[in-house]
């Protein structure tokens, strides 16, 4: 690609012999064919040789990438009147003077400052965003810390309640053990009393039998006679 028309001060005044037959722009880094002396932009002919055949597009002579610059055309191009490429600058001058102008072009510096300012604004907005995220994270950390503290307090209260209930349970278990022990003793005493009552049953039965004999079968007078008690009784 060569020098485009909008970069020229007067595009119509440029001779057609200074235009590349490939891109039709004014030559940029002009090189020429060693056979037919046709001039091309260096980038245009190198791209054509690489992508198509390695021959001259004009005379079909073999071409290599080792192309010699055309110094005569270069000197003519240096005299062309060109514009500054930076928007807002109205400088015009020789093409070979444009690099020097560009190094201290105010429009370029203004453009760079605007780019820097935009970049600074971008960085500033990023910093503000980071600060907001940092604040939100700190707030979240504080909330989590408070929540953790509340949970720890609740856990302590629950543990105390569990300890109290465990103490009450131990006390109730002790009461149950005491009652069980007392119940065992009562059962043992009842068993002992039943045993004594049962052992008296034969004696009671014998006593009732003797009373029965004396009172219902007239046993007492007979026994008294046998024993000589009757006379004593009548004598009295
Ligand atoms: Zn070209
Ligand atoms: Zn040629
Ligand atoms: Zn300028």
UniProtKB/TrEMBL annotation:
UniProt-listed InterPro entries: RNF_E3_ubiq-protein_ligase, Znf_RING, Znf_RING/FYVE/PHD
Top-level taxonomic group: Eukaryota
Transmembrane annotation, as ranges: 195-217
PROSITE patterns: ZF_RING_2
Keyword Lipid metabolism: no
Pfam families xrefs: zf-C3HC4_2
Domain RING-type positions: 20-60
Signal peptide: none
Coiled coil spans: 141-189
Keyword Zinc-finger: yes
UniProt keyword list: Coiled coil, Membrane, Metal-binding, Transmembrane, Transmembrane helix, Zinc, Zinc-finger
Listed GO biological process terms: protein polyubiquitination; ubiquitin-dependent protein catabolic process
Single Gene Ontology MF annotation: ubiquitin protein ligase activity
Name under which the protein is recorded: Nucleoporin
């Amino acid at each position: 690609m060569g020098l485009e028309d909008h970069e020229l001060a007067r595009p119509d005044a440029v001779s057609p012999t200074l235009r590349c037959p490939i891109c039709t722009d004014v030559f940029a880094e002009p090189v020429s064919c060693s056979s037919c002396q046709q001039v091309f932009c260096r980038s245009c002919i190198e791209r054509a040789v690489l992508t198509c055949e390695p021959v001259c597009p004009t005379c079909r002579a073999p071409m290599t990438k080792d192309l010699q610059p055309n110094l005569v055309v270069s000197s003519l191009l240096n005299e062309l009147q060109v514009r500054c490429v930076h928007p807002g600058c109205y400088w015009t001058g020789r093409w070979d003077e444009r690099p020097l102008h560009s190094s201290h072009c105010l429009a370029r510096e203004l453009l760079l400052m605007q780019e820097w300012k935009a970049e600074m604004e971008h960085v500033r907005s990023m910093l503000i965003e980071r600060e907001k995220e940092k604040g939100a994270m700190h707030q979240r950390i504080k909330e989590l810390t408070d929540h953790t503290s509340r949970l720890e307090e609740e856990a302590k209260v629950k543990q105390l309640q569990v300890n109290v209930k465990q103490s009450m349970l131990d006390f109730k278990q002790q009461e149950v053990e005491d009652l069980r022990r007392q119940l065992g003793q009562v059962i043992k005493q009842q068993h002992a009393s039943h045993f004594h009552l049962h052992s008296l049953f034969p004696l009671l039965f014998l006593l009732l039998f003797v009373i029965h004999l004396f009172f219902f079968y007239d046993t007492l007078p007979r026994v008294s006679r046998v024993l000589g008690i009757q006379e004593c009784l009548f004598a009295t």
